[in-house]
């Protein structure tokens, strides 16, 4: 029976301690925000230092968040962007990746070089703005969806996954009378579900966290996504418009806990979805990493 040496035990112990401290340093900021959002506003304003638990458990901040029309409109807008955007992302990325993975496609290498070129060089923000505005997408949610319809990195990742599927499957399907659409949606995509899960995570998180394009293209506040509302709340320190259900003297007190409650509400959906995709994530992300 193999026994670890003193050096191996020491090495493992140092690793465990280091990784535990790293995990605490990573998790605690979120735990602090959670405790702060559940604290009594008056006690929290008087507190300084580390929070070990909520200060006199209080849900007042969450009640104001859910009663506030601006935040709820932002939440609905973000959900629309994520759902519609993901459908468009997966559809267009899979179509493009399938076409580029076919060996019979003419000029495949020049097309791939052109796609890779866009990963490193772009026209810049001003041409991008005028393009979106010229298409009539400005001040609409489509300005946050259509320009982000395909990511070159994700396209290459899915193309690599399609190329790893044996050609014999495609040949057998064609012998049975299947066309390209049937092959893609009934053979290729079901076999590449780990990659599809990675696409959902990459695209979904990108849509959920996006705020810069909204800042550029949206003038109508009713179209603001949640992250842009959160940005205004945190950077401009404007809690008065958010705490519409609080009294005039209560706004300055509850403002800090209101910010923390909004952060938690904006973060929790992604944290809840990730564990369901985690089992696919490593496998999908490593597609094409090993050759042979």
Automatic annotation (TrEMBL):
Domain of life: Bacteria
Membrane-topology descriptor: Multi-pass membrane protein
Pfam family for this entry, one: BPD_transp_1
InterPro entries in alphabetical order: MetI-like (IPR000515), MetI-like_sf (IPR035906)
Location in the cell: Cell membrane
Record-given protein name: Carbohydrate ABC transporter permease
Main subcellular localisation: membrane
Statement: the UniProt record of this protein carries the keyword Isomerase: no
Residue stretches making up the ABC transmembrane type-1 domain: 75-277
Keyword Cell membrane recorded: yes
Membrane-crossing segments per the record: 12-35, 75-99, 111-130, 142-162, 183-205, 258-277
Classification via Gene3D superfamilies: MetI-like (1.10.3720.10)
Family: Belongs to the binding-protein-dependent transport system permease family.
Keywords: Cell membrane, Membrane, Transmembrane, Transmembrane helix, Transport
